[in-house]
Amino acid sequence: MMNCEQIKNTMVAWLTGELEPEQAREVEAHLAECAECRAEAEELRAFLPELEEALKPEPQELAPERRNAIRLASKRSPIWGGIAALLCFVPIIAILASMLLPALSRSRGRAESMQRGRDESARMQKMHEEERVLADTDMAPDFFAAAPGGFGSDSDGYVSGNGGFVSNGDGSSAAAPVMRGMGGMGAAPVAAATAVAPAFGVARPAPEAPAAPPALGREAAAGGMALGARSSDRSDKKRTVSAPAKAEMEMDAGRLAGGEFVMRDSAAARGGEGPEPARAKMDANAAWQDVAVAEALEPMAGYATGFAVAEAMTNNAAKKDIEELELAELNRRSEFYMLSIEVPSQLPRMVPTVENPVSTFGIDTDTASYVMNRDRIRNRQPVEPATVRPEAFVNYLDYHYTPPSQETFQCTLAASRHPFRAEHAVLAVAVQGAVLGPDAGSLSQFGVIVDASGSMALNDRWTPAVQSVELLRERIGENGTLTTAYVSNRTPGGSQEFAPASPGGSADWSPGIMEVCSRMKQLEPSDAVNRQILLITDGMFYPEAATQAELLQLAEVLRNRGFTFNVLGFGEAGNNTFLEKFAEKGGGVLLYVDGPEEVERIFTDQFEARFRPIAEDVKIQVEFNPAVVKAYRQIGYEDRMLTQEQFRDDSVRAAPVGSGQAVTALYELELAPGVQPESPLATVRVRYREPGAFGAQEFERYFPAGAVGAEFVAMPDAFRYAVLMGEWAESLRYPEAPKMGQPAGIMALLPAPADWKQQEFLQLLQMMR
Amino acid sequence: MATAEMIDLLVRTYQHELLCYARMLLRDPDAAQDAVQHAFVALARRPLDGLDNPRAWLYRVVRNDCLRQKRKKARVTYMERIPESPEEAVPPADHELAAHDDRQVLREAVDKLRDNWKEVVILKFQEHLSYKEIAALTGLSVSHVGVILHDALLELRRNCRKELIS
After folding, report:
1. A514 Cα distance to chain centroid
2. Among residues A57, A126, A494, B127, which one has the fewest Cβ atoms lying within 10 Å of its Cβ?
3. What is the mean pLDDT of residues A65-93?
4. Are strands A629-635 and A425-433 parallel, antiparallel or unpaired?
5. Do B5 and A336 lie within an 8 Å CB cutoff?
6. Residues of A with CB below 8 A from B101's CB?
């Protein structure tokens, strides 16, 4: 029996439920008899919630510069010990220096430009850091980008030879171990790895395909050399200034500027479209979630080798920590952008046309950045500037351009005085793809890889994921085939054809991808032009750099074999940066799903646009007339920029455009004073390849200086929507930039909304105001 | 990269409570940021293998750093005869304004507890650490933690009542 003195040191523990049952019973027995202690306990019981309420902490966060310092320390640490080992490579480095120089100078240049404005002490640390990060990310895909070029050369790049799929797959994975070795070595040995790769390919014939031709090695070598050549192209600042564009104008350019931007009748265009889609939050099934949270961490624990999370899982007290960890992760889904992308603070500079009159870029139809940020704004969460991609914002809206009836594309140009910076003008380049008829083209083949790992059970992701496969099956109907694989390490062999009852374990995508692709290869028709792969995942996937590189390479190799990779990001979509890169390498897009409506839309309204390509490798080049345009700046498309030469280099790939899909690009211009209205302002060239065709084709349009509208508000509605959406996205991306349009100002200039997307844009502005 | 992402996840998960804790110990937001930053940098520089409970480890490092900072400041204060450290310079106006707010009264009462009592109360009721964790962190025995909590709560309650009545 406890006495009053002993009760003292357990009473609070008893009140907070921390005592073992046995001790608790003793306390209760004492309280039943001792009125004094009982009164004290009652008093404290009433007091505890009050105290906790009073002590509820205000949210506090580390200052951003402190977060950066931690990030630097954490990225640097794993290789610090390897520095000594690095010294052994010095002779090799010396030999290879000539090969590597262009690449290194590029990375240093970028490292320096990123550091501007940082304090001096952080600078030196960061120097080392940037080099390493670039070695891990940028350089690696570059290396691989070169390799498949080699594979492609024996089969004209796009169409696979007999059995080519298997041997090439193996050949590419032969290079992967080199990547793994590289991860630990830091920046300099990249050259070594590049040089070793071909040798590796020859020395180690792939076990699954003993007949792999030795030529593979040579081709890879050629690929490796191509890297050097391409890098030097990039650092070469020489620009060819082409002759001023023809004085002869296409008469309809001016007409297009005025006429084509007219909105189609809204009712006709968007007929039965429902009201603004409420953001249907996927309801969390509480009981389910408990299990799911524990399982969700399995893959993470696997990747953080040796980290104690796995051990802690067995420890009940630590389990709470893990749940917190997981929840915090879910709340900050978009922060993964922060790891790899510097937060810009200033608008990109205006490029003087005397320096370079030509702007070239690959199109981008990815709208994930908009969908994700729409979600954040609706939840009153702050927008992370680094996650805002202006091109995704602009391309999310429908502009209802008239589709071409004969040609593949209709290109429309319009320009006016800038609505917020009156000294500038703004040019819109709109490319509208043709709409395919219902029976056009041959049968399509679809392959779906569903991530069936534990985290997919979170927040009820599983049901919509499985449903979306069924929606797709329904949609394809008679017009194609569907091959499925659900991947999880719980399934023998790593994947299975039918959906498991519930997800669990961790998922390795590559065997599933290989499985689906090889099954699709055996299907009829064997020459299907449209082969779409859809990877359904929540992106709770944090692979090592080497695994990432392997996956990216796989996507790229398969793309060259005619498969297009798309990613359907579910739920909180963890590692967006990687998913986006994966889809880009695979020639598709990352579709971010923020609710059942978005799934529905993807497989109904957007289906044709997303999964029936009318053109591949779509690139746009805008050549400004230096006599009219003094300087220009493209809005968005930062990571899709190409060099002038890459426009006609068909080995440089770009994204496809789907049936009926439109792409809009914007430029801010500084015009020269006193220009002849009939002199050309810009020539726009569009280059693309029809699916399944060998050669690329090209067409161009001119825009006369006289067609620049003086009044922004007098411009067609579609033009105004595009420009204002671009302005808003940039004001989110560069919050510090001066003279940017603010939500209230943007709202004042918007025409009345003609469809639900425009309506939604208006509502978001309203919320931001 | 996995290590960096793991560290980043830990930062996002624990920065909030560690900052609260450091701020309570140091009463200086900037110094608290310093302490928490140092702890995470130290975490990043050590191997994560064999670290069973990163949260407890972080608390320990933050606490040591705070106590070191405090000792250093005490020395400086003595040598330079700085009349008031920031915590004593809380403007009385605030005090008067908030006097009607029960929660404010309670917060101030906690603030006036002797240092090791205050730390234990905060660790228990703000950071929600267990008796065992508090004992491991502060070096007190588990039963001593219990006694402190008991006595501290009763004292808080008495002080608050007095304050509210007056």
Report:
1. 22
2. A57
3. 55
4. unpaired
5. yes
6. none
Name the least confident of A16-25, A57-66, A234-243. A234-243
Is the Cβ–Cβ distance between A432 and A404 less than 8 Å? yes
Lowest mean pLDDT among A141-145, A215-219, A503-507, B55-59: A141-145
Interface of B with A in 73-132 (CB under 8 A): 102-104, 106-107, 110, 121-122, 124-126, 130-131
Which one of B37, B47, B107 has the shortest CB-CB distance to A54? B107
The count of other CB atoms within 10 Å of the CB of residue A444 is 18
CA–CA dist A183, A409 (Å, integer) = 44
pLDDT band of residue B47 (cuts 50, 70, 90) is confident
pTM value > 0.80: no
Answer whether A26 touches B (CB < 8 Å).
Answer: no
For the record, the structure tokens of A543 come out as 């692979």
Task: Identify the band that residue A618 occupies on the pLDDT scale cut at 50, 70 and 90.
Answer: very high
d(CA B164, CA B166): 6
- Please choose, from the candidates A209, A432, A191, A275, the residue with its C-alpha nearest in 3D space to the C-alpha of residue A756: A275
| Length in residues, chain A | 769
Measured distance between the N- and C-terminal CA atoms of chain A, rounded to whole angstroms: 66
- Complex ipTM: 0.76
Helix or strand holding residue A752 (H, E): none
- A88-102, A235-249, B11-25, B105-119, range with the lowest pLDDT: A235-249
pLDDT tens track for A407-441: 899 999 999 999 999 999 999 999 999 987 765 54
H helix and E strand count, chain B: 8, 0
Q: A77–B44: do the CB atoms touch at under 8 Å?
A: yes
Q: Give A 76-135 residues with CB within 8 A of chain B.
A: 77-78
Task: Return the axis-axis angle of helices B102-112 and B142-165, rounded to nearest 10°.
Answer: 130
Q: Tell me if A551 sits within 8 A of A510, measured CB to CB.
A: yes
Across the interface, whether the CB atoms of B15 and A61 are under 8 A apart is answered yes
| Residue A574 near residue A541 (C-beta atoms within 8 A) | yes
Asked whether the beta carbons of residue A75 and residue B130 sit closer than 8 angstroms, the reply is no
Give, in order, the Cα–Cα distances in Å from A742 to each of A137, A298, A370, A379, A397: 35, 44, 18, 20, 19
Nearest CA in chain B to A19: B131
Hey, what are A553's tokens?
Answer: 């390479």
Q: Which of A329-343, A385-399, A465-479, A672-686 has the lowest mean pLDDT?
A: A329-343
**Which residues in chain B have their CB less than 8 angstroms from residue A74's CB?**
3-4, 7-8, 43-44
Please enumerate in sequence order all residues whose Cβ is within 8 A of that of A409, keeping only pairs 6 or more positions apart, or say none: A431, A432, A433, A434, A615, A657, A686, A688, A699
The conformation of residue B19, written as its DSSP 8-state character, comes to H
Do residues A257 and A414 make contact, with C-beta atoms less than 8 angstroms apart? yes
Distance from CA of B72 to the nearest CA of A (A): 22
Backbone angles phi, psi at A480, to 5 degrees: 180, -170
Q: Does A303 touch chain B (CB under 8 A)?
A: yes
Asked if A80 and A170 count as a contact pair (C-beta separation under 8 A), the reply is no
Give mean pLDDT, residues A598-626: 87
Interchain CB contact of B37 with A (< 8 Å) = yes
Which region, left, alpha or beta, applies to residue A739 given φ > 0 means left and ψ of -120 to 50 means alpha?
A: left
What is the separation of C-alpha A570 from the centre of its chain, rounded to a whole number of angstroms?
Answer: 13
A387 min Cα distance to partner chain B (Å): 17
Spatial contact of A436 and A608, defined as CB atoms under 8 Å apart: yes
> Residue A436: its pLDDT value, please?
79
Percent over 70 (pLDDT), chain A: 61
